[in-house]
Amino acid sequence: MKLYIAVGTAVLLVMAIFIIVFVAYYQQKQIRQQLILKEWQEKYRKGLLAATLQAQEHERRRIAQDLHDEIGTMLSVTKLSLNQLGRTVEHNDPGSTVLVQKTRSLLDETIANVRRISRDLVPTTLERFGLVSALEELAEKASNGEVHVELSCSDKMPTLLPQLDLTLFRIAQELINNAIKHANAENIIIDLHCQPNGVLLSVIDDGRGFDLDEILKDKKRGLGLRNIESRLNVIDGHVTFDVEEGRGSRIHIQVKNLKPEVEVEVEAV
Question: Which residue did the predictor score with more confidence, 59 or 248?
Answer without folding.
Answer: 248
